[in-house]
Design brief:
Shape: elongated
Number of domains: 1
Largest sheet: none
Structural class: mainly alpha
Distance between the termini: 68 Å
Number of strands: 0
Order of helices and strands: HHH
Strand content: under 5%
Helix content: over 70%
Length: about 110
């Protein structure tokens, strides 16, 4: 059970770190600040479980696998969400531009 906990703990921690680094890159201060609280909590819980484990090598391998999957998931998730939000923002701009131009002509 502790190996599953370490795996998901590492996955969640690295996933949030990956998302947070992209939020910082995009200068999203509120998002980065908010997510940092959850990163701290996740990191503390993960470290506690990791330290209490009996076998180092197997625990490390579970942690490394979770970390690798977590960083890839964060990249994929952020790029898809960013693309989706950008598309919706552009559609709203086009609609509002058409609405304003429509009012000017009428």
């Amino acid at each position: 059970m502790e190996y599953i906990t370490v795996f998901f703990g590492a996955l969640l921690t690295v996933y949030m770190l990956g998302i947070n680094s992209q939020l910082v890159r995009d200068k999203n201060c509120i998002g980065a600040f908010s997510l940092a609280w959850f990163i701290s909590l996740s990191n503390m819980l993960y470290i506690k479980v990791f330290v209490m484990s009996d076998e180092f090598l197997l625990t490390y391998l579970c942690s490394a696998l979770g970390s690798c999957i977590g960083i890839v998931l964060s990249i994929v998730t952020y790029s898809r969400v960013h693309k989706l939000l950008s598309k919706k923002t552009n559609e709203n701009r086009v609609i509002s531009t058409l609405f304003i131009k429509g009012n000017e002509n009428g």
